Amino acid sequence: MTGTALLALMALSTVGGAHVLSRARWTWTMPRAGIALWQALGLAWGVTTIGTLLGYALLPYEQGITGGIPAAFADGAARLDAWHLAALLAGLGLTAVLLVMLVYAVVRIGRARRRHRALLALVASDSAVPGTLVVDHPGAAAYCVPGMRSSKVVVSAGTLELLDSAELAAVLAHERAHARERHDLVLLPFASLRQIFPQIGLVGRCLDSVELLIEMAADDRARQHRQPRELATALLRFAAARPVAAPSGALSAVGDQPAVLTRVRRLMEPTEPRRSVRFAALAGATVIAVTPFLLYHLPI
Fold first, then answer.
1. pLDDT-based confidence at 20, cuts 50/70/90?
2. How distant is the alpha carbon of residue 200 from its chain centre?
3. Which residues make Cβ contacts (< 8 Å) with residue 217, sequence separation at least 6?
4. So where are the chain's domains?
5. How many Cβ atoms are within 10 Å of 110's Cβ, its own excluded?
6. Distance, CA of 198 to CA of 182 (rounded, Å)
């Protein structure tokens, strides 16, 4: 019972942790550490919730989860009454739902990207900047279409007229950061969770928080090569011009206006992150991600 109780306690703690982290502001000073924490919390929630159901279901075998599952298969779950059998089916069902929805999200986004790449091949033209395509559209747009083999950065003709050369270079550096760090893969599990639980506000806040952090992480990468003011002014110009929404499966430099203003303030008034806090955050993320798997091995 100890392992099951600890898994249940940790499952509840991950929900509380997500609530706290969704309102945290210190992560803005170290977005990559914040992203790691979010990934650890998401993984831990899934593993501990499933583990709680399986642990309760397999209590009659008194061998924990890793020992109880083979034992249950060996005797056809003969020791399980209706309640324990229902918990076993719920645990297996939740596992299937999470995996199926994640695969569905991967397939759906991959299909959308393939369609958009085919469209770009017809309507886009190469620009003077290698790896960048230009679409003849008057609206402001700049986004990245990630890919396993190659990623494309797309800008509109309206963007070329809107930004000067320095601002454009900063935006392109931001989009290349998305492609280099594969931020689309970071978002996938959280987007999948929102599809499963669309009515739960906390899930939406989690996705919003992760989206903001990956934009900040891309901002940090861009300002390693460009002046922060260049990206800040580009973001403000985009926001004022009401940019065209990025297609499904793409990552855009500009989101909603409150997020843009937050990023601009951060670029213009940077706060140096404390190494001790970053180390604590990364260590905490490691502990959160690993502990649930260790609890699966508790014998009782």
1. very high
2. 17
3. 31, 32, 35, 177, 181, 183
4. 2-25+33-270+281-295
5. 13
6. 25
